Amino acid sequence: MKLLYFAWLKTKTGVSEETVSPPAEVQTVADLLTWLKRRGPGFEEALADMEALRVAVNQEYAEMTDPVTAGDEVALFPPVTGG
Amino acid sequence: MIRVQREDFDLGAELRALSDGDHGIGGVASFVGLVRDMAAGEKIGAMTLEHYPGMTEKMLGRIEAEALERWPLNASLIIHRYGRLEPGDQIVLVATASPHREAALESCHFLIDWLKTKAPFWKLEDTPDGGQWVDARDSDDEAAARWSKRAD
Predict the structure, then answer these.
(1) Interface predicted TM-score (ipTM)
(2) Lower Cβ count inside 10 Å, N or C end of chain B?
């Protein structure tokens, strides 16, 4: 699974892009975030407020209950501020 | 048409090109977003726009398709820049062309409102205290929501 981090998610985790192999119990976006939080203080801080996060799976906005699978590209970022 | 680019754009040339050769167009509406030198009462030196290559083009294309479905448009254009920008610089251009002004003006307004809440761009402002990621504003969500209600 390819993970991408943007804006302050990237700053706080110190990662912009990585490939991960989450355990089998990670089935949804919420599961993935819970698993990622345990990876260290930077991740815990960045993912502390799930309400402040937006997630895209394969470049489509996703809900916390949406499924994630091994071949997916999952992006984590704050609400957008373009324009 | 969608363009995501680092370079500046020539506003006059872009608007002329949009209606060039199509004499069925009676009006072109446009919105140009510029970098302000102040934000939340603080002086801004510059800003850096980050985006999600791939998803950005996908979302902008979808927003444009939505406008083309809702209004009778002969042409439309969205240009959004990324990278380092300074106060006064152009960030975004949205332009629509239609036989009549109402469709052009309304669809232009719709495009910029939707773009602001759906296109994956993030602004990092250089302030006297260092780089600050800009927070999304509730008023932008409300502006975008207006167009959802109208579609019901």
Answers:
(1) 0.94
(2) C
